[in-house]
Fold this sequence. Notes:
Chain A: One of its GO terms (cellular component) is small-subunit processome. The complex is a heterodimer of chains A (828) and B (528). Chain A is mainly beta and 828 residues long.
Amino acid sequence: MVAHAEIRVVHLSGSKINFREPVITNDSRFLLCASGESVKVYSSSSEECVHDLQGHTDLVSGIVRNPSNHLQVYSCSADGTVRLWDFTDGILIKTFIIGYPIYSIYVSENHGGVVFVVVPMANDKSSELFQLVAVHLPLSGDQEVEARELSAVLCDVSPSGAASFGRKGEYIAAVKGLQLEVFFFKKQKSHRFFLKSGNKKGAKNAFTCVSCHPKEDCIATGHEDGKIRLWRNFNQKKEYTYSTLHWHHGAVNTLQFTPEGTNLLSGGIESVLVQWHYTQENQKDFLPRLGGAITHIAVSPDGSLFCTSHSDNKITIIQSCVKVSAIIQGLVKGEGVRTDLTIDPRSKALVLNGKPGHLQFYSLHRDKLLYNLDIVQQEYIHEEGLDQFEVVKAAFDTRGDWLATVEERTQKGSELEINLKLWVYDEQTQSFMLNTTVIAPHEDQITAMCFSPSPETTMLVTISFDGHFKAWLLADHSDTKEGASWSCDFVGGYHHLKPGCCCFSADGSLLAVGFQEVVTVWSPSWELLTTLSQPPGAIRDLCFGRLSCSKYLLGTSTKNQLCCWNLLTCSLEWSTPVDVSLLQADPLSENMAAFCSQSGCSDLFVFKPGEPRPLYSQKALCTGKVQRAVFAPRDQMLESCEEHAQWLNRSQLYFFTQHMDLMTFSTKTEEDRLLASSKRLMVDDSVAVTPFYLLLGKHRQHQEALTNPMAERIQLPQGSIAIKELLYTPAHVLPSASFLCSMFVRSLLISSSSASEEKEPVEEEMESEEEDSEGEAELRDARQDLGGSAAWGPGEELGAPALTKAQERELRRVKHFDHSWLSSVLEC
Amino acid sequence: MASFKSTKIPIYPKLGEKVTPDTLYWKNYKAPVQIKEFGAVTSIDFSSLAPHNYAVTASTRIHIYGPFSTEPVKTFTRFKDTAYSGKFRSDGQLLVAGCEDSMVRLFDVSGKVALRVFKGHTKGVHVTDFTSDCYHILTGSDDYTCRLWDIPNSTELTSYKEHTDYIRCGITSKLNRDIFITGSYDHTLRMFDARVEKSVMTMDHSQPVESVLLYPSEGLLVSAGGRYVKVWDLLKGGQPLVSLKNHHKTVTCLSLSSNGQRLLSASLDRHVKIYNTTNYKVVHNFDYAASILSLALAPDDESIVVGMTNGVLSIKHRKSPEEKREMAGKQRMQPVYRIFVKGRNYVPKKDDFLVSKPVKSHLAKYDKQLKKFNISKALDTALESWRRNRKPEITVAVMKELDRRGTLKNALAGRDEQNLSQLLNFLIGNVVDPRFTPVLVTATEMILDIYQAVVGQSSVVDRQLVRLQELVEREVDYQQDLLEVLGMLDTLFAASLPRKEVPCPGSSRSNGLAEGSLGAPGPQLKAA
């Protein structure tokens, strides 16, 4: 079969891991958390992801341990299913189809065979009211079971995390707004308690979270104003009492009793884990400065481990409230990517602003956050409404020796604070060290900056809304005690226009700065060489062509123009009316990627500036505008011969959609390779997959394999006739040693007949894949016919394929999944 | 769990000259010794003999000073008129001097009376020198001639009359006994060979030449005249190499530092400039009280002697290494440091088992308070008098941190009269400092907001507020003046830039010129 190179848009993981409360397993070795459409199993000691439980087709909205089997967990999802997993092997055991989108899940030991889920009140998804229902899980051998036996427990509950089971599962407490509702299962009756909407001091009394004491009749509730109330005696409607604890100054985000009920843990925006002693309520312990605001707290069943989820997409594992033992950090997306996406030339990591005041280095190949670089270097004050310093720009020079960052703080009624910082890479510490800080480098916001790619000078150009662009040079003061530092070399402007973008040519010999409608081209000696303009519309993006297309300069304007100027003739080569929201040049080839937004969707065109037809185009890439994009160089070059996939050979294109999802393009060949490598990496799942383990584990397996068959095979080589012949034949009649060598070595190898049996299921799977991809190939052929006629320009629309992408993917996943399950059953 | 991040105290750039090895070297001199002479000091010459005495020619006398004496060890007074150019012979035994009365006198250093008197010039003799074989004397005179004399016979050997103006400087080659160079007010430098009738090389300095100097290798010649110092390549037939214009008045004297790496020039503008002889950049600069006429360096740069028009002789001696060591020793004796360092510099040996101890980070007092969110106390600690006076940047940094936390107003509020006047004092002292202005202006506004209700209750505070107001008004006026000057400069620079048409095929607009960086004030920069 001919390998077809189909290009797909893939959702790259790196999704939220702090969406719902994580779960620690009974033996405290694993930590499970919902991450997008999958459940991730992390090792609590090594921080590595051990399994990725895939199967849900929508956002996973809750995970709970199966109270009757400590090796299993339930997960629920907005796709309307509850799934039961074996997390040690990463196997899906059962799927219960509920039929309504589920927002959270609760279980209790005393309610066997029943899970409590939160579903919308009305059947439609848009409904704002939610109810808690009990679902009786049918006992059936089937893999997919429909669970239709629903009984409402509480109506009008909040969709997430605001319910808790009381002592021995006798009651369940749920909070919403200003109301606490306790439902007693024995009496089948619920009590409601209301608080006044606001006290005289403007205190906000609304409930935020609830947790029930596991041993006593006590309910702890958290409130908007930072108070914690402990409710007792609530089985009477009238004579209930509550006591108040107050430490938090912001809302209490989460509350959790330890399994023995001796301590109560609370967390909020202050990012301090507070441990209240249940018996002595005025005593408390603190664990401060954990990172972002605490959103969830989970406690292991034996009480030895706590873990806190933070708003900066992080899970911290804490050993009994004294020591942080591990940190699982996901890609921090925050409110938006303020810095452009950049690639660190050294580590090939994606660099963008992460938690407040930090730059994050995210490895795209390993889907792991490498480290955070503290840019602002200030104590972060967790308080709402405070203006914080934010990293807004970051740029690397071509070799990765220098990093420039811009941080700014806007303040109400006072001027903007901007700092430009330059960081040098330190070989010894393997990280960036602060070299120069420029306070107030410009009078207004810095809109763009770039390093000169020329190898002779180390130069940075910053442009700002104050109408100037500045060139910063590394001045070497080798004769003085202080080392090299940066200083301003040139200040330029053009008719007091505001510059919007800048770009260096690939060799650093030209600098183009877009001043509203005019593009100015400057030489390294700061002479204005020429100006280019294509009114109307201010210049939005500028890009120099590379390699064979280096004579072209591309620019996009706000008035839906994509222009290409020839720098040799200083004239417009071509222009086309498209609304390009983002223009990106591939640093390793001549290719350019242009993201165009059209009627609520984004299209992608990949083209060479010198050629009239695009290399590749994809309509309706995603909904909304593409926010940021970057070309990341590949580790290994792909050997794709398909014409329209060749642009992905050297580098890969990553982009952020409007909803802050990191997406990328992948080809068929690449996916095959990934699949193969993931099979190779199948290791003993009970141990966390660390690089060390991979090394040692393989070695050990190899050794085992060596020792076991040794007994029966040891005499095999000696017995072979070839060896005997070789040894007894006179040397002068033998062929040359080089000729014999390979045969001799082969005769010593262990025959592969015994291993072939094990391989069979794998091959079967491969076949099924091939069928799968054949089906796809047909699909794509059909699309190609359509796409072939799509010329460079808008207007022509692609016909909708027979199956949507999501469906295709789903189909494929189901096939894969079924198969692995079958094979696992076979093995059993 | 991250540790508390202490408040960043910004390091502000040091303005003024950078600390280079050169500045360290040339600053390593003691305070100058000043000796008053009778008239302008026209010439200083060091003896090459061991104690390195030097002859100072001023008015009608020549004084010889010992290396560390402030009184002359010897004086020659037998001149009828102003003496010029007292020079030692290379063996340090003989001294020659010209005179305004056209006679050249030769003295024995130990004697008093002239050994020889050379008569022949018709006007004052400003230039005298011994040739390298020690038997001849070169003289240059205002009668436009330069002559060679034989010492044993006291006869005139040759006379050259090629210059067309006063000869005011000259030098003999130290390698060849026949070669010498003279510089004249006719703007030329001429090189003569005693074996040849005429000059062998002529260089045009285009200014009256005041001083000439040969490099030890004698491949390069340095001449000074007018505001220029020029370097000539003699091996390339007198080709000009560099022209330096670093003085704004006539350069009167040149000298080389003993290793030939640095060139010194002294000028009537009261400056001595030191050049690096590889790139001819000024590496250091000395200022003196009056116009400088003569300059000499002792061997090994042990002392710099400068003679000025007002008759003051200034001698700077190099600091001896013992003194330096003494000062360093004093610092080392401090017990605090010894205790602090005790055991910390122990380097573990190969087999030692290292037990690591968590490093306890020490927080400054104000940081401790900030960590506990005690904002008022943090500001109080930052306002402690020594910190306020010695390191205002710390106080300002704490204020900035409080402002960032949005609690500066709370920290400033609720202060009594004494506290408030302290705060106002600090503001008066620092609010116009450009490094601190942005933060302190915010703080000042807050203080005025908070305490406007109590204005008039305390005379101390009221007086300070009035002072603050005056200060701010003055600063505003000053800034306005500066902006006006900046505007004027911009106009001047714009007018001086050549107008150039920029080709613009793609643009329909008319193109202007690039605005230069000249007028823009440089942003504050600090090295981390």
